[in-house]
Amino acid sequence: MLKFKNTILAYLVIMTILLSIHFFVSIPLLIFLIINIALILLIVYGSAYIGSNFFIPILTHGNNQKKCIAISFDDGPSPLYTNTILDILKNYNTPATFFCIGKNIEQNKSLLIKIDQEGHIIGNHTYNHPFNFGLLSKKKVKVELLSNSVLIEQIIHKKIKLFRPPFGVTNPNIAAAIKELNFIPIGWSARSLDTISKDPQKLLNKIKKQLEPGAVFLFHDTQFVITQVLSPFIEYCYNEGYQIIPISKLLNCNPYE
Question: What's the CATH fold of domain 68-250?
Answer without folding.
Answer: TIM Barrel (3.20.20)
